[in-house]
Hints:
This protein has helices at 14-25, 51-68, 71-88, 110-127, 130-147, 179-193, 196-212, 223-239, 247-267, 274-289, 297-308, 333-350, and strands at 35-36, 39-40, 45-46, 49-50, 107-109, 148-149, 152-153, 156-158, 163-164, 271-273, 321-323, 326-327, 330-331. The protein is mostly helical. The chain has a single domain, classed as Glycosyltransferase, CATH 1.50.10.10. A hairpin with a 2-residue loop joins strand 11 and strand 12 (326-327). Helix 1 packs antiparallel against helix 12 (333-350), helix 2 packs antiparallel against helix 3 and helix 4 (110-127) packs antiparallel against helix 5.
Amino acid sequence: MILREAAFPLSIPSFLDRAGRWFLESGIQEPAGGVARYFRTDTRENLPISNEITGYTVSALVYLHARTGYGLYLDKAIEAAQFLTRLAWDREAQTFPFEYAPPGNALAYFFDCGIIARGLLAAWRATGTREFMDVAAACGQSMLRDFAAGADFHPILRLPAKEPLPYDPRWSRSPGCYQLKSAMAWFDLYEETGNSEFRNAYHRVLDFSARTCGAFLPGDQDPHRVMDRLHAYCYFLEGLMPCAERKSCAALICDGIRRVHGYLAEIGPSFERSDVFAQLLRMRLLAEIAGVVPVDRDTAHLEAERLAGFQSDAHGGFAFGRKAGQMLPFVNPVSSAFGLQALAMWHDYEAGVAPPDRRVLI
């Protein structure tokens, strides 16, 4: 398929408008700019603010502004980015704690720090506000300094001592290929600053991830936990995009798309996550534009339909997942961000428009 460059904004499909309005009007972003981890539809309440989720939301709002031209999205992105730089950033520890104002012993996650840094870089590219670049770069440096553990990187540190937590079998509490998504922050910082230290750090994680990715799936005997690992494995595939032109990385992307699709089809009847559909659909589109593998249009169309089924008719947000045919009572900013972007990319692809630069990947 021959794709043409997009001259944003394109026409605004209803699913994108409804999802965007959920970010603006639902109260998921609180007055100080921080964003709640998710909303419970059964108890009608938000969970506390999450620094990581706020970072994701900055990227989502910047994308929505670029895609629609609606200025309020950028205003809210700036509010969220300022929350991160002025309130969430721990200047003394030079890191982002796992939660805003956490009780007791605070934690810092390698993965979260990279997601936040990428959000701040998105805000920097959209506004030119130096504050966002400065904190993103400081975060990137702290990730290099604090999390390094030989060939890989500790996933979690205890603050303020910055002592690594013992690893355990949960994927988020052990080093793994999923960390490559977060390491993209280093590659983005390298592109913005020219500092080769950031590029080299990304390639360290890339090498580790390429060596270990084969054992990540299935990784558990419980199929529902395997579905959770599919979400994390898609992070690995996304993290390969800066080097997709390499034959070795292209091969990993091709094989990864095939593996995720297979497990999703197998486990989906009992448990499916909306973010896995969204991540897989985005990877299919990005892989074609990178010249890695053409989109399987029939399969992608079915995945887009399944993903669209998670969007609420009532408020426009995307549900986290479905078990045994029943929607789970969680509306998640990350699921909503991935879902709106994947469906927008698919909408544009069907119109013959190329996906945006990989740096806008939420």
